[in-house]
Amino acid sequence: MMKAARLHQVGAPMQIDAVEKPVASGQDVVVEVRACGMVPNLANVLANWETWYPQMPLPPRPAIFGLDPVGIVHQVGDKVMSVKPGDRVYVNPGRACGGCRFCTSGQPQKCDHWTLNGYFGYNQNSLRVFERYKQGGFCQYLEAPANALVKIPENVEFAQATRFGYLGTSYSALRKCGTLAGKTLIINGATGTLGVGAALFALAQGIGKIYAIARGKPLLERLKALDPARVEIFSNTEGSSGEWIKEQTQRLGADFMLDTLGAVADLSSMKDAMSGLRRGGRLVNIGGTAGDLPVDVKWWMDEQIELIGSVWFTVAEGYEMAGMFSSGAVDLNVLETQSWPLSDINSGINGAANGNGGFTSYLIEID
Ligand SMILES: [Zn+2]
Questions:
Q1: 103 C-alpha to center of ligand 1: Å?
Q2: Backbone phi and psi for residue 167, each to the nearest 5 degrees, phi listed first
Q3: Cα of 58 to ligand 1 centre, how many Å?
Q4: Rounded CA gap, 309 and 28, in Å?
Q5: Distance from the alpha carbon of residue 33 to the mean position of ligand 1, in angstroms
Q6: Distance (Å, rounded) from C-alpha 345 to C-alpha 62?
């Protein structure tokens, strides 16, 4: 048996239960969980989820949530070759069928079984996935496919590695922009969890200039301090961000934009920032915001704007990030962590998070 925090009912606190410990077989492994990253204010998100996104199922209750687990490989199935017991790993919660044309071409997010295990699914097929992989990261041991694991570099601590999911989401979006070296990038929501990660990877890949847009000045200043010559900051409480970008770029506009707005954000902020894109500009949307955005389709065509949606990241991209951490190209020490033990998980998920925007990572430590 093992300890697991389980949600028995949406809106109720999680309970620490004794549940059956998984056993590895075939291509699967069992990971001894050391820590698990957490969505800030998760309790509120879960309480509203089925109202906000009725098409996206949560796992059946009682459920073990936990999106970004890290730990040590405990046991491997008889067909596993890529990892061995003792390896330090991040478990990518992205699950898909593994056999369709998208899965086999490295695009599992396009699979019709795509699911974020330990959090939610994208359609009813996810219920089959939840049945096969019952544990998120808020427990002592979880079962996962071997091909979901990213080995954690020696210079990255477990607590830091719990940020892989958010970092990967930003990294994957930047890859969809294309070559970054010498180009210009708008980040809308720049001081949030996705925004800060995007800034770190864009700087590491030679971005020419980042136009960072957020509300509060103190965190924007902290973002600028990462690279004062290449990060320009703007508080959109002080005017139009699109107009500011045009001023900064001799009216040309910026090459790329990442939008990272969180749930229930005002979409007018996205629309405003979009107007700062140049001809041929590319926008990648990775935030959790929802709603209808009025877009001038003539502008879209005439200016040859590309609008891309991007969800999560692949294991391959996880390994690329690990290489950048290992080499020092991206220094995770600019981020801080705030953690709670599994026994006190309800404090953690109830919005106790009060760190420094995207500079703080929130996690549960599994004791
Ligand atoms: Zn598939």
A1: 4
A2: -60, -40
A3: 20
A4: 30
A5: 27
A6: 16
> Is 348 in contact with 364 (CB distance < 8 Å)?
yes
All domains of the chain in start order, with CATH: 2-163+335-365 (3.90.180.10), 169-309 (3.40.50.720)
The reply to whether the predicted model has a pTM over 0.90 is yes
Query: In angstroms, what is the span from residue 132 Cα to ligand 1's centroid?
Result: 15
* 277 dihedral zone (left: phi>0; alpha: psi -120 to 50; beta): beta
Which residues hold their Cβ within 5 A of ligand 1, which is an ion?
Answer: 96-97, 100, 103, 111
Report the candidate in 289, 282, 250 with the shortest Cα–Cα distance to residue 267. 289
How far, in Å, is the centroid of ligand 1 from the Cα of 112?
Answer: 6
**pLDDT 10s digits, 126-181:** 999 999 999 999 999 999 999 999 999 999 999 999 999 999 999 999 999 999 99
Give bridge partners of residue 86 from the DSSP assignment. none
Instruction: Judge if the upstream peptide bond of residue 59 is cis by omega within 30 degrees of 0.
Output: no
Stretch (H or E) spanning 74: strand 68-76
**DSSP β-bridge partners for residue 186:** 211, 257
**194 CA → ligand 1 middle, Å:** 26
Q: How far apart are CA 188 and CA 250, in angstroms?
A: 20
Question: Residue 135 corresponds to which amino acid?
Answer: Q
Distance from residue 205's CA to the centre of ligand 1 (Å)? 30
- For residue 242, give Cα distances in angstroms to 155, 253, 313: 39, 8, 28
211-268 per-position pLDDT tens digit:
999 999 999 999 999 999 999 999 999 999 999 999 999 999 999 999 999 877 889 9
